[in-house]
Write a structure and sequence with these properties.
The complex is a heterodimer of chains A (about 300) and B (about 290). Chain A has twelve helices and no strands. By secondary structure, chain A is an all-alpha fold. In chain A, α4 runs antiparallel to α9, α6 crosses α7 and α7 packs across α9. In chain B, α3 runs parallel beside α6. The radius of gyration of chain B is 19 Å and the shape is globular. Chain B starts with 15 loop residues before the first strand and ends in a 5-residue tail after the last helix. The chains are: A mainly alpha (about 300), B alpha/beta (about 290).
């Protein structure tokens, strides 16, 4: 039976293993500074939201959501056309970016050979597109969609497509990530059974990548929803007295109306602007929360 | 020795070691009296990745309703070789396959041959079980559906699962996710998935190396049943497994080529399993199976 270590030995070992006071201080200091940074971000956001909320909550009502705006009587002003316009724009935008974006992502991931210089060129430039300022897309939309080649006029379709072009790089990147996350073993298993490449993509890869793609779509849309500059250039109205109902209708959107009301010197319109901001934020938060929920729910552990 | 015009006697038929000259008769035990019908004939098959040779000049025959094992040390090209049988090497852009792989008289690497059609007849089970992220039922039904197979899907699925000795274990949870199964069950699911498209040949690339001994035993029993109806080629690191289940064994090695720059896989000996493991013709085979090297 070996004798237990002596007290002296135990004390030495304890001295070596115990955390030094200075390193513990450093640990705490580091953690504190991280918390301070977090606090700055959160508190700023909270203060902004609280301010907007305080200003705007009084003007929120069902009427507000459905009424057309009025330049004369603020009490009767509403965001009906703007809200409908925003939702319509999202619909057109989604109808465009989902097929085009997913198809591009599939091509780049599954078919494009990295050896060809043109594929590398395309890849690099998609990243660049994401960095282009949104107003440039507005000019693009004005030149080719509203006038020029397509000559659609300042309508919903033009606005939706312009926003779609703006956020297309986001969904292409998200789509590629989602497709890349599908393990090659799934593709091999499918091909080894005698499925063609297209059958493998359509029936195995895309269904498996769907949650990632859906998250990308929602994040793209939540970026598009807040864009004002391109819509102004494309000719979205700041003051619309009817609710848009089709792709050929004139269009307006929440960010534009907010911009218009904030510029109005009368204090009642500032309150209306704040109320409109609340509506926009609620939509944004709902979309982002849904995207996060989707991602968590379908996160696959391969 | 990369001469494409080799006579039939020089091709590896079980009982002849490649390193012996043509005129020497095979040494060793009596040839089996069973009539063997070739399913595959490989002639001078070589595979290179980006110019680096992986296997060189392999010639052999695979026989119907036999289990053929490919054994050898790591890096000798066993997986590369087995992937030649169903053109899975096509999926690797840097891979180049030379030589002929003749399946029932037709070179499957000929220009007019569609690899998709090849893979419908020659199935593959991989080292790591790779069930699809779908239900058990949909995993099995996927193959028949995309191939447009006629018939009652429920019956096809049941037949495939019975064929893989998995039916009793999953019949009550056909709609559950395949990932919820154990590793051994997943691998049998992959075998069932392969059986559902009614292949002619089943290739198995180290099917048990990721599994525990009990699951391995079940799959080995399954292989013995399956060889009644299918021809099986198995790559294995486990020599005991090769000795247990296979009828014929091919031993490959890694050889430095003449200018000492590249390592190439080569076929050394191909014979009946019993002979390979008890009285091999080549000393390198003997060293490997007795555990002296590799």
């Amino acid at each position: 039976m070996t004798p237990p270590p002596s007290d002296a030995v135990a004390a030495t070992v304890r001295g070596q293993l115990a955390t030094g006071r200075s390193s513990r201080g450093l640990e705490i200091g580091f953690k504190l500074s991280l918390l301070v940074c977090l606090a700055i971000a959160i508190i700023t956001l909270a203060v902004l939201l609280a301010d907007v909320f305080a200003d705007g909550v009084g003007s929120l009502s069902l009427n507000f959501l459905t009424e057309t705006p009025s330049r004369i009587i603020p009490e009767n002003s509403g965001i009906g056309p703007a809200l409908a316009g925003t939702l319509w724009l999202m619909l057109v935008c989604a109808a465009f970016i989902i097929p085009v974006g997913v198809a591009t992502a599939v091509y780049l991931e599954e078919y494009a050979s990295r050896d060809l210089w043109i594929n590398r060129f395309i890849e690099v430039n998609i990243q660049n597109l994401a960095a282009v300022p949104s107003i440039v897309f507005g000019i693009l939309g004005l030149a080719f969609l509203v006038r020029g080649l397509f000559d659609l006029g300042s309508v919903l379709l033009a606005g939706g497509l312009t926003l779609g072009l703006l956020v297309l790089p986001v969904i292409i990147v998200a789509g590629r990530e989602a497709i890349r996350a599908v393990p090659p073993s799934i593709r091999e298993g499918s091909l080894a059974l005698g499925a063609t490449k297209w059958q493998t993509i359509w029936k195995q890869v895309l269904p498996a990548a769907l949650p990632g793609i859906a998250t990308g779509v929602i994040l793209s849309l939540s970026r598009a929803i807040g864009e004002t500059a391109p819509l102004i250039l494309v000719g979205a109205a700041t003051f619309l007295t009817f609710v848009p109902s089709g792709p050929g209708d004139a269009i307006t959107a929440l960010p534009i109306v907010i911009f218009d009301w904030v510029s109005d010197p009368r204090p009642e319109y500032k309150a209306l602007a704040a109320a409109a901001i609340i509506v926009l934020m609620v939509i944004l938060l709902a979309m982002n929360s849904f995207a996060i929920w989707l991602r968590n729910r379908y996160e696959k552990k391969w | 020795m990369a001469d494409a015009e080799r006579t039939r006697a020089e091709r590896a038929v079980p009982g002849i070691s490649l390193e012996e000259t043509v005129h020497e008769t095979h040494a060793g035990g009596p040839r089996s009296s069973l009539k063997r019908e070739p399913v595959f004939e490989l002639e001078g098959v070589s595979v290179a990745y980006d110019g680096n040779p992986a296997i060189t000049d392999v010639s052999m025959e695979i026989y119907r309703n036999h289990i053929t094992a490919l054994i050898g040390p790591s890096g000798c090209g066993k997986s590369t070789l087995i992937r030649c049988f169903n053109r899975m090497n096509d999926l690797i852009p840097s891979a180049r396959v030379d030589g002929r792989v003749i399946y029932h008289g037709q070179d499957i690497y000929a220009d007019e041959i569609d690899p998709v059609e090849v893979r419908k007849r020659i199935g593959m089970v991989f080292q790591k079980p790779n069930p699809f992220p779908k239900s058990v039922y949909d995993n099995i039904a996927f193959g028949p559906r995309v191939l447009g197979m006629k018939g009652e899907m429920d019956a096809i699925v049941e037949r495939a699962l019975r064929g893989a000795a998995l039916w009793d274990e999953v019949k009550d949870r056909l709609d559950s996710n395949a990932f919820g199964m154990s590793g051994g069950q997943q691998q049998r699911l992959c075998i069932a998935r392969c059986l559902a498209v009614e292949p002619d040949v089943i290739l198995m690339d180290e099917p048990c190396s990721a599994l525990d001994p009990i699951s391995t035993g079940k799959i080995e029993d399954l292989m013995m049943e399956l060889k009644e109806r299918y021809s099986i080629v198995i790559v294995t690191h486990n020599m005991q497994q090769a000795a247990r289940v296979s009828d014929l064994t091919a031993f490959l090695i890694v050889k430095l080529d003449a200018d000492e720059k590249h390592r190439q896989g080569r076929l050394v000996e191909y014979d009946e399993t019993e002979k390979i493991f008890t009285n091999p013709s080549d000393s390198r085979t003997e060293d490997y199976v007795t555990g002296k090297v590799g």
